[in-house]
């Protein structure tokens, strides 16, 4: 299957609709997808942009068409990503920062701040050995899941989000496939409250947290596009005091 066809079907977009978005006739698009026509670099990029395809998928589609990839993929420790790395450090380690984790597209733990260690100390849990994956750590036995007071709500929402993201990240889909055989059938969260709280049993009582995510606004590197920061904010005064002490 042509990579463009796979991406279009994932997005549930018809050939006609995609052609209208990108300014390409449906007939020409059909010829591209069946291999009867070879798109120019500009046409293929326009189609991929119209699908809002992830940068890694755009590179794969370009390579499949015999064209050079459009986006770099540096390691996070590369000199080219120095300013972005510094920005991550600043967000993580600013005075008074709440617990914060940097995750990649597969939910691998890339960075964490000292407040995460403080939270784990309160929970009586060790920091997982590197390389760590948040899905394994949260959904597996003996990790964060063991401290959850609202396991069904939190794990159900996490699993729902991961399944949605896995449509565009094959490695994440493979990880979920390995995990799901041993997981309960959790319902999704109810919509009675404005925010889903993560309720955790700690050595100082119940902790109540909610999440916010940060990401780079216009990344042009595959690695940077995959990263997001999850900030864990206290939902009540008791939790804020416990994390601050």
Keywords:
245 residues, alpha+beta, 434 Repressor (Amino-terminal Domain), Beta-Lactamase, 2 domains, 5-stranded antiparallel sheet, 12 helices, elongated
Task: Describe the structure in your own words.
The structure is a single chain. The protein has 245 residues and is of the alpha+beta class. It folds into 2 domains: 3-64, 434 Repressor (Amino-terminal Domain) (Orthogonal Bundle); 79-244, Beta-Lactamase, CATH 3.30.450.180. The chain has 12 helices and 5 strands. It has helices spanning 3-10, 15-22, 26-34, 41-50, 55-64, 82-93, 114-123, 134-139, 151-166, 170-180, 222-226, 237-244, and strands spanning 100-103, 109-112, 198-202, 205-214, 228-234. A 5-stranded antiparallel sheet has the order 2-1-5-4-3. A hairpin with a 2-residue loop joins strand 3 and strand 4 (205-214). The longest helix has 16 residues, at 151-166. The mean pLDDT is 91.
Give a topology summary:
Layout: H1 3-10, H2 15-22, H3 26-34, H4 41-50, H5 55-64, H6 82-93, E1 100-103, E2 109-112, H7 114-123, H8 134-139, H9 151-166, H10 170-180, E3 198-202, E4 205-214, H11 222-226, E5 228-234, H12 237-244
Antiparallel strand pairs: 1-2, 1-5, 3-4, 4-5
Helix pairs in contact: 2-4, 9-10
